[in-house]
Amino acid sequence: MKILIMGASGVGTTTLGQTLAKRTSYTHLDVDNYYWKPTTPPFQEKVPLVKRNQKLTADFNSLPKVIVSGSLISWGNEWLQAFDLVVFLYLPPKIRMERLRQREIQRHGEALHTHELIRQTSQAFLEWAAQYDDPAFTGRSLAVHQQWLQKLTCPILRLEGAIEFEQKITKVMALME
Question: What is the pLDDT of residues 58-102, one digit of tens each?
């Protein structure tokens, strides 16, 4: 079974994917590990689309049970038919943005104040992420995700709102083989 967990930044796609993989025989793949080149500081240089798609496709196809976390809706139409289940996570903007602010503090610590590039990158990221619920925003947004979800033929589990983490795990595991 192939599962995709997707949603806005800060909703917990990676955490849910990692936890499910730890509790099952599935392998977790996070799209950020394919999207970004490893840099210091992180998240500075993107991997070209063709290369990231080749690497993810190779890893994805080599695994019988895989959980992919993240958004790959702009990576090609082949991903529309690749999954047996898609889990869509949604949180209200206020909760999600507070999570992201806290994550940035945990990730970068004092460097948010002392390292200009990290500060600028973090601020730009938060500004970008805050646009997710804006229907006019054409980047990674709720509207774009909803349009992509409508094209899928596999089951979609929508987990919306501040659902307890263990309840999310239970709901997803009930649909896994």
Answer: 999 999 999 999 999 999 999 999 999 999 999 999 999 999 999
Amino acid at position 129, single letter: A
Task: Count structural domains, the chain.
Answer: 1
Domain containing 36 equals 2-173
How far is C-alpha 129 from the geometric centre of its chain's CA atoms?
A: 12
Domain of 158: which CATH number?
A: 3.40.50.300
Q: Is 128 helix (H, G, I), strand (E, B) or coil?
A: helix
In sequence order, the β-bridge partners of residue 88 are 6, 158
Which residues fall within 8 angstroms of residue 159, CB to CB, at 6 or more apart? 87, 88, 89, 90, 168, 171, 172
Residue 101 contacts residue 129 (beta carbons within 8 Å): no
Q: What is the pTM of this model?
A: 0.92
Which tens digit of pLDDT belongs to each residue from 117-162? 889 989 999 999 999 999 999 888 999 999 999 999 999 999 999 8
Structure tokens at 152: 């899928």
For residues 40 and 49, what is the distance between their CA atoms, to the nearest angstrom? 21
Give the three-class secondary structure for 14.
helix
User: Does residue 160 contact residue 167 with C-beta atoms inside 8 Å?
Assistant: no
